[in-house]
Amino acid sequence: MPDTQGKTIILGITGGVAAYKAAELARLWVKAGYGVQAVMTDAAMHFVGPATLQALSGRPVLTSLWGTAGNGMDHIHASRHADLIVVDPASADFIAKLAQGRADDLLSALCLARTCPLAIAPAMNHEMWSKAATQRNLEQLRVDGIKIIGPDAGEQACGETGLGRMSEPAAILDAVDILLGPKPLAGRTVLITAGPTFEPVDPVRGMSNLSSGKMGYALAQAAREAGARVLLISGPVCLDAPSGVERINVTTAKDMLDAVFSHVRDASIFISVAAVADFRPAKPAARKIKKDSASLTLELVPNVDILASVTSLPSPPFCIGFAAESENLAVNAEIKRKNKKLPMLVANLIQNSIGQDAAELLILDEQGSHPLPVADKLVQARLLLRHAQSLIG
Asked: Is 3 within a domain?
């Protein structure tokens, strides 16, 4: 989390049904300690009243280009005291204005005259979102350095379903925390493996390990928050990659090994969280194995140990391993750490973490053991990276 003390966010609100979500976002920001200055377009006021935003932010809402400042320069002065402008929702029309550099109302003029970063959370009908004109405008905004948050796919106010639904306030809050937070890993690449691998027995069956991928994905988000370029090599999971994270999908242990060695030389930190299958069938069947009364015997061969292969490189990145144990946690995990030559290993009891949103963890390094009490996995991920940074120096 960033230090919110003294930080101000300008919340720009344009015309759209999703404008009602801006009120919740203002509330969340104020609760987090940010100062919030709302700026509304004429169209926005058809959907939500300025009195609502004023009550939530504790500041008069700016609505007119002619302003309330003595010299009519709100579009200049407002951004000079802000750390970030977030337009939420950003309509298709307003996105076009930004791409063209137009400044015919207070909010567009303020964005053009800003001296702080700008982020937008688009919201529109899925057909409007998909049109070439909108996509051209968005690409121009990316080139101009404007951060785009979302949108999501889902049911829309018009009754149709598709991509264009504004991201939820909690997701926008997280994105803003990343933008305004400290960046101790800026300039570094963090390579993470997450989720299970799947080893085919035949075209429809296979062997796998239990893994939700939640810890690996939390670490990817935490590393991105810290300013790193994050490469997430993921086995099959039902999770969305965190914003700004480069996701590489794999299936088998061999796929994961190949992906890791395609990118590990660019990495400063390698975090091996994936539950990689230790064995695979020696000869997967080309056709579905028919079920009958006879028993089935499979010949298994070992997969390459990805983490040990990385630590054995001549100049390996800083490596963090994970150990899931069912008993004797500290002893078994320390044996693994030493055998794999790891500067840092994170251990947990299987029965207390797999598939859960929270975990109790134990960090092991050359100095000893460091327990982390039960907490949300994203909270734990941030603490783990902080510990790793203290070891890296």
From this structure: no
Per-residue tokens: 18: 């999703």
- Shared domain check, 245 and 140: no
For residue 27, give its domain range.
8-180
Q: Which residues are known catalytic residues?
A: 158
**DSSP annotation string for 278-335:** SEEESS--SSPPPP-SS-----EEEPP-HHHHHHTSSSPPEEEEEEEESS-HHHHHHH
From first to last of the 393 residues of the chain, give the pLDDT tens digit: 566 778 899 999 999 999 999 999 999 999 999 999 999 999 999 999 999 999 999 999 999 887 555 555 666 777 788 999 999 999 999 999 999 999 999 999 999 999 999 999 999 999 999 999 999 999 999 989 899 998 888 887 777 888 888 989 988 998 888 788 888 999 999 999 999 999 999 999 999 988 899 999 999 999 998 999 999 999 999 998 987 899 999 999 999 999 999 999 999 999 999 999 999 999 999 999 888 767 888 899 999 999 999 999 999 999 999 998 888 899 999 999 999 999 999 998 876 667 678 888 999 999 999 999 888 898 899 999 999 999 997
Q: Domains in the chain: how many in total?
A: 2
Q: Is 14 a member of any domain?
A: yes
Query: Of the candidates 180, 199, 224, which is a domain's last residue?
Result: 180
